[in-house]
Amino acid sequence: MNQSTAPEFSRLVSLRQITGKPVLLEADEGERAALARRFAITEVRSLTAEISLDRNGDRVAAAGKLEADIVQPCAVSGEDFPVHIEEDIALRFVPEGSIDPALQEGEEIEIELDTSDLDEIEYNGETLDLGEAVAQTLALAIDPYAEGPDADAAREKAGIKSDDSPSGPLADALGAALKGN
C-alpha cells in the first residue's frame, strides 16, 4: 500500500482503549467501493469483523473472524459471480522497528513456525490500524483464480479441455481406441 494515501478502511485503536471486549468493525458503502477498486474486484457487498484484542505490554494480539460478501470476475469466463468469505484472523501488532529487518527486506531465510507464531504488523506511536489489518486479511482471502458457475461452459465454447481431462497425442489415441474409432 502506498504510505502517502490513507487506508480505505481505517479503524484506529489506541493502546489505552484496549479493554479485552471484542471490537466489531463494519465497512460502509464508500469504504467497500474503495476496497473493491483496490483489490480489482467488482464489488464488496459487505465486510464485517469481530476481533478480540489482548495487550501484553506494547504487543497486541488480535484474534477473531471476518465475513465478507464480494462479487468478482470468473478467472475463465470473466463473468461476475458472488463469493462469500469467512476468514479467521490471528495476528500480532508490534511497535515499529520490532520486526527483523532481514525479514522485511525479503531476504530468503528458513523459519520454522509453531502455533504461537502469528503474522506481525508494525504500528507507530500509541495507535494501531485494526481496519487496515482486516482489509489485508480480506485481500489474502480473495482467490484471484476463482471460477464462476459458467467456467466449464466457457472452456468448452473456447475448445479448452479441463485440467482433469487427459490431453495430448497419447490421451487422444487412447480415447479414440476406447471409443472404437
Main beta-sheet strand count, sense and barrel state: 5 strands, mixed
H/E element string? EEHEEEHEEHHH
Secondary structural class? alpha+beta
Strand order of the largest sheet: 2-3-4-5-6
Number of helices: 5
Helix content: 25-40%
Total domain count = 1
How many strand elements? 7
- End-to-end Cα distance, whole Å, is 58 Å
Beta-strand fraction estimate: 25-35%
Shape: elongated
Q: Compute the CA-based radius of gyration.
A: 22 Å
* Average of pLDDT: 84
Low-confidence stretches: none
Give an overview in words:
The protein is an alpha+beta fold and 181 residues long. The protein has one domain (12-149). It contains five helices and seven strands. The protein has helices spanning 29-39, 101-104, 130-141, 151-158, 169-179, and strands spanning 12-14, 23-26, 43-56, 59-73, 80-95, 119-123, 127-129. The strands form two sheets. It has a five-stranded mixed β-sheet with strand order 2-3-4-5-6, with helices on one face. A two-stranded antiparallel ribbon has the order 1-7. Helix 2 (101-104) links the parallel strand 5 and strand 6. It is elongated.
Q: What brief labels describe this structure?
A:
33% strand, 181 residues, two-stranded antiparallel sheet, alpha+beta, 25% helix
Layout of secondary structure:
Layout lengths: L11 E3 L8 E4 L2 H11 L3 E14 L2 E15 L6 E16 L5 H4 L14 E5 L3 E3 H12 L9 H8 L10 H11 L2
Parallel strand pairs: 5-6
Antiparallel strand pairs: 1-7, 2-3, 3-4, 4-5
In short:
By secondary structure, the chain is α+β, with helices and mostly antiparallel strands. It has one domain (12-149). The chain is built from five helices and seven strands.
